[in-house]
Amino acid sequence: MTTTTYLIIAAAVLVFIVIFQIAKASEYVSVLKGEETSRKQNNRINGFMLLGFMIVGFIAVYYCNKLLYKTTLFPQGSASVEGEKFDEMFMITTAVTGLVFVITQFLLFFFAWKYQEKEGRKAFYFPHNNKLELVWTVVPAIFLTVLVVFGLRFWFRITSDAPKGALEVEIVGKQFGWMMRYPGKDKIFGKTYFRVISDANSNPFGQIFEDNEELKLKADPTNFDDVVTTQTMYIVKGRPVKLIIGSRDVIHDVGLNHFRLKMDAVPGIPTTLWFTPKYTTKEMKERTGNPNFVYEIACDQMCGNGHYSMKGIIEVVTQEEFDIWMAKQKPNYYLAFPDKDPSAIKPAADSTAAVTAADKNAVAINK
Ligand SMILES: [Cu+2]
Q1: Is the Cα dihedral 262, 267, 269, 270 positive or negative?
Q2: CA 228 to ligand 1 center in whole angstroms
Q3: 293 C-alpha to ligand 1 centroid (Å)
Q4: What spacing in Å lies between the alpha carbon of 255 and ligand 1's midpoint?
């Protein structure tokens, strides 16, 4: 333990002793004064302390908001068009619940002070009132229903079909990282099967590249142009992107805080989500004044001991930049089968292909 820890423990013990001594002393005082007067005095002090607690509490709430607001993601605004709606709903909910919070807390503490014990005043016995019960049940119920309906409409929108021309990206979580698949020129994701997943053979999605009699699989040629990447996802500013989300092991969650969206990644059950990025990564660096800004994919579901490190990155670029990037990507088929790669004939590409082939042989021998 550090010196600071010892000091904190010592301070806590001292505070406890002081409180204990004060309590003991006030007990002797009350015996001397007589219990009746002492209780009345205590009531008065308690009443003022409750009032003071309320005032300090309200100031603290205001101060914390003022102090910490700039450290939240709100000042930079939503990075997706759809997320603006989310921010709006969040603000309405916060405003209404905040107002209710202030009113109820004020009444709680103010009444405790105002209606403390007083000479000649008797407590009013108020056991039940149907009208009051009805009002405080129906009013919140109506309001919550309105909030839920708005939320559901938004939910149905972002989980329904994406607009025409949307970019489609498959994103799959695993312990502990993210991988992405693009459908290639044919715009069709090739069929996958979990039993042919093999990281060693460059097939992390389990794309069905070959016929497999044992598993009764037929090769799916639409797989041949699919592009697979890990950790970083490229998407286009102003172009809706539809994520097809899955998981290879446990439940993860694609958390997109800057875009104000998130969606569970459930093994065996694909989920979808679409949104339209508003700013490129470059623009966000300027907006936030942070030259190291990156859009983060944070796993929002506790998924194991490496959960904290399950971070992916989204690069929002222009359509031209995206096309250039995409043109440089090699379909995953050629990574899994380097001998089928037409560019492998070139001497430069040949050496890398040979290394991959050698790696594959090593894996085969290890088996
Ligand atoms: Cu996870």
Answers
A1: positive
A2: 19
A3: 22
A4: 10
Dihedral sign of CA atoms 19, 20, 24, 30 in order: positive
Q: What is the rounded distance in angstroms from the CA atom of residue 68 to the CA atom of residue 262?
A: 23
> pLDDT tens-digit profile of 297-340?
999 999 999 999 899 999 999 999 999 998 888 888 888 777 77
Contact of 294 with 313, CB cutoff 8 Å: yes
What strands, in cross-sheet order, belong to the sheet with 227-230? 227-230, 177-182, 167-174, 241-247, 271-275
Q: How many CB atoms lie within 10 A of CB 212?
A: 14
Buried b (16+ CB within 10 A) or exposed e, 234-251: bbbbebbbbbbbbbbebe
50-to-56, 61, 111, 224, 360 alpha-carbon distances in Å: 10, 16, 10, 71, 73
Give the Å distance between the CA of 177 and the centre of ligand 1: 7
pLDDT attached to residue 365: 43
Rounded distance from Cα 301 to ligand 1 centre (Å): 6
Contacts of 45 (CB under 8 A, 6+ apart): none
Identity of the amino acid at 37: T
Distance from residue 297's CA to the centre of ligand 1 (Å): 10
Q: Residue 111 C-alpha to ligand 1 middle, in angstroms?
A: 48
Question: What is the rounded distance in angstroms from the CA atom of residue 194 to the CA atom of residue 297?
Answer: 24
